[in-house]
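Record type: monomer structure entry
Structure origin: computed from sequence
Chain ID: A
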Amino acid sequence: MLSIAQIIALFGAAISVFLAGIGSARGVGIAGEATAGVVSENPEVFGRALVLELLPGTQGIYGFLIGFIVLIKLNVLGGVAAIADITLWQGLWIFAGCLPIAVVGLLSAIAQGRVAASAIVMLGKRPESSGQGITMTVMVETYAVLALLASFLMVWFAA
């Protein structure tokens, strides 16, 4: 039977996967709507628009990565009998470690989807501006990467 500490840690893993995944789904959807509109008018920009559309999807990958690291940390992949015994403090620390990528992943993916949508519209008007659009979209990614790093360090080094 799982302890309350293990459940709290696993709940943190689930939150990091779910919230970052929801943000990515929203962000990619926002950018996808813009891509559909631009490509219907200018089909030759599809490949460059697709790159911009995919960028908000990285936050979901980051959330999944942190969730996977929690599973490794707790030895969940070894089966229920092999789950690491942790203290309540460690469970809370792991849960707290999952929060940066969960919250920042959710919010930054949606924001990145909006920036990507604007860049896609810009691409439709000026196809040579794809590099500028990617640069603007990647700027939002910086904060997701920082949140990933914070979550990784907190979860990995939880005592």
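Annotation 1: The helical segments are 4-41, 46-54, 58-73, 88-125, 130-156.
Annotation 2: Residues 10-156 form a domain with the Four Helix Bundle (Hemerythrin (Met), subunit A) fold (CATH 1.20.120.610).
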